[in-house]
Amino acid sequence: ARQIHEVASLPFFEVFVDAPLYVCEQRDAKGLYKKARAGEIKGFTGIDSEYEKPEAPELVLKTDSCDVNECVQQVVELLQERDIVPVDASYEVKELYVPENKLKLAKTDAETLPTLEINKVDMQ
């Protein structure tokens, strides 16, 4: 992904979400770590397959000591420092949950918004 960005003269920022294994296991809503430890899943990163930390990420987010808002703030600050996001951009993390009683209206509104087709390379 870094090379694709460099070729296209686009900025690239590698962000390492540094969550210790015990934190990943605590957050494991699907029970995949438990299955991997029981031998039901082979080649599971961090259990029986080594995890390689990035060599030189632009940002490291320590998710065991920072909450979501603090992590978002760090990302925003990086993007502001690199002139990607304006300094006066809001720091507020907006809840994307739509209450049940407003869901139909939100879907109707969403259908009127412009769309843009993107592929895998665009997302990188």
Automatic annotation (TrEMBL):
GO molecular function, one term: sulfate adenylyltransferase (ATP) activity
UniProt KW keywords: Transferase
A Gene Ontology BP annotation from the UniProt entry: sulfate assimilation, phosphoadenylyl sulfate reduction by phosphoadenylyl-sulfate reductase (thioredoxin)
A single cellular component GO annotation: cytoplasm
SUPFAM superfamilies: P-loop containing nucleoside triphosphate hydrolases (SSF52540)
Domain (APS kinase) ranges: 1-62
Superkingdom as given in the UniProt entry: Eukaryota
The protein's name: APS kinase domain-containing protein
Species this chain originates from: Micrurus paraensis
Lineage: Eukaryota, Metazoa, Chordata, Craniata, Vertebrata
